[in-house]
Design brief:
This protein is mainly α and about 375 residues long. Helix content is about 75%, strand content about 0%. Helix 1 (about 1-20) packs antiparallel against helix 2 (about 25-50) and helix 3 packs across helix 13.
């Protein structure tokens, strides 16, 4: 099913490139279509790629290595009170290549600071939101290895990386990803059958809330209160963008055309409508039919990844589907607050994992069918 949905999405989007739909120039449409096409390409790479178990484990270890390096970067940024992007020429890239305005107080975009003015760090990622999303992927990766690797040393290493990924999550200071982290824990508990974890998760949320209101600084406390009440400018900005996008979808159910929403490559600020929600971004550009296809793709991706995890036998056969399913479920929250499919690292890697998971599930079904035929022939 995900195969057909992805092919339908790509064909549908391509029609909006070649047909005279929307006010964006052809090049802008082609650039935005490239973003969608790359997601499909990574998925189908996963569908056809054949890797040995040790290669898959090496890939997972690479993800965890990047997590450790990101944490080291975050600590260095916090200690020096300096964004790495301020030193790397990122602001110049925004101005010269991306044609964006560095409007924040620290010579970067507003994404790099909280409402209170506190710095939000991104390590070597493009922005704190992308770092936070990457840590959701890292947490799932470290957890599945922690639960399946024997030996105190291995468990100590993977357990430590679990803590580092959560640490990076708080350095990034992303509300959506922190909420998604708790959502991730609940979904993991359901998949693993560890229903006590749901209770532990509720206790963790309660402890977190108590910490915020009893021991946290006033800035952090007011940050949480304003976020929940949508009183801060960032939350209000989301709401305004959502309303603008929903009004556009209601008025134009077949969309305004590619390159008219979001902040991905190919979107011209002159034609931009909405953009703080991936679902609304697609709805504004490509209409309700495309939006339904995209929602269906996410649902079936999670469904088949869970099924692939449950029929897997070896660690590599279980790890990739587990990470794909849990990350895609938790990623729903970041998708609701940002044009998050442009986060290349997590978007490309997670769609590749979904494709590989669908391949594993298909292989498992074929093995089962073959086994039944052999049993029938023997009997």
């Amino acid at each position: 099913m995900p195969d057909y949905l992805f092919m339908a999405i790509i064909v549908y989007a391509f029609m909006y490139v070649i047909l005279p739909i929307g006010s964006s120039p052809f090049l802008s449409k082609a650039l935005y279509f490239k973003n969608i096409l790359m997601l499909g390409a990574m998925y189908f790479f996963g569908r056809v790629m054949v890797l040995k178990e040790y290669q898959l484990i090496d890939l997972l270890k690479l993800i965890l290595t990047l997590t450790v390096i990101a944490f080291i970067f975050n600590v260095a940024e916090k200690v020096s009170n300096t964004h790495f992007q301020s030193l790397s020429g990122y602001a110049l890239w925004l101005e010269e290549i991306d044609k964006s305005i560095t409007s924040g107080n620290y010579g970067l975009t507003w994404t790099f600071e909280a409402e209170s003015g506190a710095k939000r760090y991104a390590a070597f990622f493009a922005n704190p939101l992308e770092l936070a999303s990457a840590m959701l992927l890292s947490f799932s990766t470290a957890l599945i290895l922690f639960l399946n690797k024997k030996g105190h040393l291995s468990q100590w290493i993977y357990g430590s990386i679990l803590i580092l990924s959560v640490g990076c999550l708080f350095f990034a200071y992303s509300r959506a990803s922190i909420a998604a982290f708790f959502l991730l824990l609940f979904f993991i508990a359901i998949i693993l059958g560890y229903y006590k974890f749901i209770l532990y998760g509720l206790i963790s949320v309660l402890v977190f809330v108590m910490f915020i209101f009893l021991f946290a600084t006033d800035d952090l406390r007011y940050f949480v209160i304003d976020s929940l009440s949508l009183a801060d400018s960032s939350s209000l900005g989301h709401v305004v963008e959502w309303i603008e996008g929903l009004e556009s979808i209601a008025a134009n159910p077949l969309g305004l055309g590619l390159g008219t929403s979001g902040n991905a490559g190919g979107v011209d600020a002159e034609f931009k409508v909405g953009g703080e929600n991936q679902f609304i971004v697609f709805g504004v550009q490509l209409g309700v039919p495309f939006l339904l296809l995209y929602i269906g793709l996410i649902i079936t991706s999670i469904y088949y990844s869970v099924k692939a995890y449950r029929v897997g036998v070896r660690l590599a056969e279980k790890a990739v589907p587990f990470i794909a399913a849990t990350f895609k479920f938790a990623f729903l929250l970041p998708l609701m607050t940002a044009n998050a499919e442009v986060y290349a690292y997590v978007a490309y890697l997670s769609w590749w994992m979904v494709g590989y998971s669908v391949q594993l599930y298909g292989d498992a079904k074929e093995r089962t069918a073959l086994g039944m035929k052999i049993n029938t022939a023997v009997n």
